[in-house]
Amino acid sequence: MFSHIVIGSNDLERSKRFYDAVLGVLGAGEPYRGQAPSGHNRLFYRHDGAALGITEPINGEAATCANGGTVGFKCSSPEQVKEFHDVAVAHGGTSIEEPPGLREGPMGALHLAYVRDPDGNKLCAMYRVK
Fold it and tell me: What is the mean pLDDT of each run of 10 residues along the chain (130 residues)?
């Protein structure tokens, strides 16, 4: 459904270290470094037909995380969900909500892990049990 998602960062190099490690778990490689027409620096991670952009805010104000917003990442196994979580925490992320694991609900059985990146953006690693 989505082609790309872009989130802001107050420290692009810190974000690069975090996302290089975390998205490496999913198989994403080095990001494309670019510059917006406004001169603001950006990173774009491409993987499996989608992209995640990390940018300095174009309006020159501090980057803030979306209250109630979550960026979800599809994982290929329960083990990859746990690894995503653990790598995120080891690289400056914060574990939030319940520990990584199986959740049963109206959407079916899901393995989930939730973390916040160093700028406070909420990330979810998810594996849907077949």
Answer: 90 97 96 91 94 92 89 96 98 96 90 96 94
Helix H, strand E, coil C: the string for the chain is CCCEEEEECCCHHHHHHHHHHHHHHCCCCCCEEEECCCCCEEEEEEECCEEEEEECCCCCCCCCCCCCCCEEEECCCHHHHHHHHHHHHHCCCEEEEEEEEEEEECCEEEEEEEEECCCCCEEEEEEECC
The most distant pair of C-alpha atoms in the chain lies apart, rounded to whole Å, by 46
Q: Which residue has the tokens 């209250």?
A: 67
C-alpha distance from residue 8 to each of 30, 47, 116, 128 (Å): 18, 19, 13, 28
